[in-house]
Amino acid sequence: MKQTELKTPLETKVQIKTPKLPRQAVGIMGGTFNPVHIGHLIMADQVMAQLKLKKVSFIPDAQPPHQDHKETIDAKDRVAMLELALAGHQGFDLDLLEIARGGKSYTYDTIVELKRRHPLADYYLILGADMIEYLPTWHRIDELAKLVTFVGVKRPGYSTKAKYPVIWVDTPEVAISSTKIRQLVSNHCPINYLVPDKVQAYIKEKGLYLEH
Fold first, then answer.
1. Percent of the chain, pLDDT > 70?
2. How much is the pLDDT for 12?
3. What's its job (predicted)?
4. First to last CA, the chain
């Protein structure tokens, strides 16, 4: 008796469809964070909400290329304060890529590495209006401009004209700087409400920014 081999449709023709993964919009907040303060958090939160970003990554630098690093405290303390400040904030995370790499922290190198790790991410580099003015002086800026979208946070007294395309965002004006906070601490003045409570406690516990 002749036997007939029956084939199911799946056996005769298999079609494999690879689902198209969605791209993710990710904000980047780079800086020395010496120390992190509520102005950083407000800026990140406002940009994330207004541009509907998936998240904002805070990336502390190992050695700032555009600043005098003599006043920059050890990375472990800056990272510890960021961990305290970001804890419990949905949509914020901490990336220690630049700390691990060491040396001068150039944004171009960081973005190239991030895009290698996360090819489906579109990066939005969040900058204050004062930093937008300095973009033409940045390391490999023309190449960087092809890899990211610049997001400028408006500030009084600074122009919104820029050499490179920028998405401008309005946020509540918070006249706080890390420099001012360091000066206040050095002069034994209070920094209540300028930094998260846990960051303030850490600064006090470790005796940071005091003149010795």
1. 87
2. 44
3. Catalyzes the reversible adenylation of nicotinate mononucleotide (NaMN) to nicotinic acid adenine dinucleotide (NaAD).
4. 100
Cis preceding-peptide flag for 190 (omega within 30 of 0): no
Enumerate residues 6+ apart whose C-beta is below 8 A from 206. Answer: 77
**What number of other Cβ atoms are within 10 A of residue 118's Cβ?**
13
Strands (E) in the chain, as ranges, are 24-31, 55-60, 92-94, 121-128, 148-153, 166-169
Domains identified in the chain and CATH numbers: 22-174 (3.40.50.620)
pLDDT score at 14: 47
In the numeric block, which tokens belong to residue 40?
Answer: 């950083």
Cβ-contact 70, 107 below 8 angstroms: no
Instruction: Output 185-194 pairs: Cβ under 8 A, ≥24 positions apart.
Output: 185/209, 185/210, 186/210, 186/211, 193/38, 194/37, 194/38
- Residues sharing a CB contact under 8 Å with residue 198, sequence separation 6 or more, in sequence order: 84, 85, 87
Please, what's the largest Cα pairwise distance for the chain? 101
Give dist(CA 146, CA 98) in Å, integer. 21
pLDDT digits (tens, 9 = 90+) for 127-185: 999 999 999 999 999 999 999 999 999 988 889 999 999 999 999 988 899 999 999 99
How far is residue 86's CA from residue 30's CA, in Å, rounded to a whole number? 14
